[in-house]
Every structure is written in C-alpha cells, then in structure tokens.
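Re: [ENG-882] Designed sequences occasionally contain unexpected residues at chain ends

Forwarding the minimal case from QA. Structure tokens:
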C-alpha cells in the first residue's frame, strides 16, 4: 500500500483546524513496517512518489497544499533512510522536514548574519531515520533544533531525540505544534502565529547558543 495525501499541516490555511492534519506522522510511524517520507518541495515530492512506487511494502508520503520555494533541483533522486545536509555548520544543527526545510535554510541565513553557523539537515525519510548523519552532525555542533509542521508529540522530533538519547545526548529544542489544533488563516500567517517560521527557529537556536 502506498499512501500519498496532500493538505498536511497548517498549509491548508483558511480551511481551518478540521482540515489541518498535524498528527499523521506519528500515526503512520507507529504502524509496523510503514515508511514515512516528508518531501520539502515539488522536486522532492516527485522523487518521493517514485521512491514509494519502487519500494516493496507500505510507504506514506506526506505533502502539503501551499506553494513553497524550491529546495532541490528538478530531477533530484532521494533515497529511503537518507537525510541530506543542505548547509554545513559548526555551532548548531537544525533538523527539519517538509515545509520547515526552507524555513530552516532561511533561519540559517539570518543566524549567519549574526555570527552563528547553523548546519541544516533535511530528514526527508522520517522512518527509517538516517541516524548516522544526524548523530555525526550533533557530535560536531553539540546542539540540535528540530523543526516540523506537525505535533511535537510523536513526529520527527521524537525520532531524532530518541536517536540522540541513545547515541549522542545533546541539548535540544523543538519547533512544532505544541499540543494544539490548527485554526483558519493564510499559510504564512499561521506559520508565524503557531511559531513554525524561520523566526521561531532562530529563537530556538539562540536559546541554545547564547547560554
């Protein structure tokens, strides 16, 4: 079975909380043998659908509704169980998935202007998770922020924190929906309202790096 819904997260916008899927990663990841892929943009979504079709067994591909900037070049090929380091850094690691990848890159630009070097990792494959890439980055930077357009309970943050707790415990912060339902509004407004945008990521990084 291949499941590839759209309209995940608050990107649904004005349709409101009844239509905004914020718990799906945790629900799908909890199913035995289910793979969970969260593409960051159109090119990654194309790659994810192809990968799902080629992969034996069940795969869940999470996609949103809103238009988002391109992160990957057309024709990119992505692998199951791989995370992709999109920007090298020394001071903090930002692990993101889906629409939060572009926000993480924007946050890294803002942080660079203030002298903070942020490494940005796209955890495209939430399950199976690329522990090796994330653990290696955490060992290098010593601090990790996880950003997802999803509940902080049971999603990417849970997967990353479990991996690091077992292999490389470091100080962490989590940017995501904190035990809340969505609400009606434009996508950009909701990202800011719920603390999911680049400014929220910058704030989370500073809470780690300025101590």
């Amino acid at each position: 079975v291949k499941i590839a819904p759209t309209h995940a997260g608050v990107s649904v916008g004005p349709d409101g909380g009844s239509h905004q899927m914020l718990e799906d990663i945790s629900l799908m990841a909890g199913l035995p043998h289910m793979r969970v892929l969260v593409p960051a943009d159109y090119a990654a979504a194309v790659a994810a659908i192809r990968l799902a079709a080629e992969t034996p067994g069940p795969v869940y591909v999470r996609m949103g509704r809103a238009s988002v900037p391109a992160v990957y070049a057309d024709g990119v090929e992505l692998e199951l169980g791989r995370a992709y380091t999109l920007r090298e850094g020394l001071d903090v690691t930002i692990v993101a998935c889906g629409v939060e990848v572009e926000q993480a890159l924007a946050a890294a630009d803002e942080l660079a202007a203030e002298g903070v070097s942020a490494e940005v990792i796209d955890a495209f494959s939430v399950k199976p998770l690329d522990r090796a890439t994330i653990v290696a980055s955490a060992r290098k930077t010593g601090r990790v922020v996880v950003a997802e357009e999803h509940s902080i309970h049971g999603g990417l943050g849970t997967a990353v924190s479990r991996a690091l707790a077992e292999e490389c415990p470091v100080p962490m912060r989590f940017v995501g929906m904190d035990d809340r339902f969505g609400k009606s509004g434009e996508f950009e407004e909701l990202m800011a309202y719920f603390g999911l945008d680049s400014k929220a990521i910058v704030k989370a990084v500073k809470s780690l790096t300025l101590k």
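QA comment: On inspection the terminal residues look reasonable. The chain has one domain: 2-209. Proposing we downgrade this to a documentation issue.
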